[in-house]
Structures are given as C-alpha cells and as structure tokens.
Amino acid sequence: QVQVAETGGGLVQAGGSLRLSCVASGRTFALIGWFRQAPGKEREPLGAVAYGGGSVYYAESVKGRFIISRDNAKNTVYLQMNSLKPEDTAVYYCGHDVRNGRVFGSWGQGTQVTVSA
After folding, report:
1. Rounded to an integer, what is the distance from CA 52 to the centroid of its chain?
2. Per-residue pLDDT, 53
3. 86 in the Ramachandran plot: left (φ > 0), alpha (ψ -120 to 50) or beta?
4. What pLDDT, on a 0 to 100 scale, did the predictor assign at position 58?
5. How confident is the model at residue 57 (pLDDT cuts 50, 70, 90)?
6. Three-state SS letters, the chain
C-alpha cells in the first residue's frame, strides 16, 4: 500500500502563493489528487494528476489559480496555489489512487493552509 504525506502548509496573505508537496512512499502509476476541508464543511476534491502528467480539476473555485503537477522521479505531486483568498483557508490533503474524485488508496495526514485578509 502506497502511503502519501503532505508538506508545505502555512500562513500566507491574501493574493499570495504557496506550494504544497505530496510525497508518495513508492512509485505509483495511480492518479494522486488534492482535497481540502474547511471548518464545518465537507472535504472537497480539488483535482488530480495522472502518471503521465495530465491533470483534471474538479473545483470551479480553484480553476485558473491552482495548478497540480507531478515529478515521478521524486514520487511527488505538487499543488501550486496562486492568488490565494481567505476562503481558501482549510486543511489540505492528498490522496492516492483517485477515481472520479474519490480516493481508493491512502490519505495523507493533512496540512493547514491559512490565508489572512
């Protein structure tokens, strides 16, 4: 079972950028995706990236601002977040083996992202 772990969260001002990393414990050909959960809300799928680099975005609210990419040599998937807004504040998770926005493999422990106004 491939395990994943996120790093890179923190506090950033509105309009700023942040990059999160999701490191897999081994080589995987499955899609790896990013999700987030704000207080009092359900976990929301943001998007996922395939082994070949093709990505799909599920959340309209992040299209054009967030970019998901993958470095297979490092077993790492990135979430580049630009033009951050206070409403992007959430715990961000990556998930292994994503199909149609659902995780069929493991979840990371999550990393907090806080965007100040």
Report:
1. 17
2. 87
3. alpha
4. 83
5. confident
6. CCCEEEECCEEEECCCCEEEEEEECCCCCCCEEEEEECCCCCCEEEEEECCCCCEEECCHHHCCCEEEEEEHHHCEEEEEECCCCHHHCEEEEEEECEECCEECCCECCCEEEEEEC
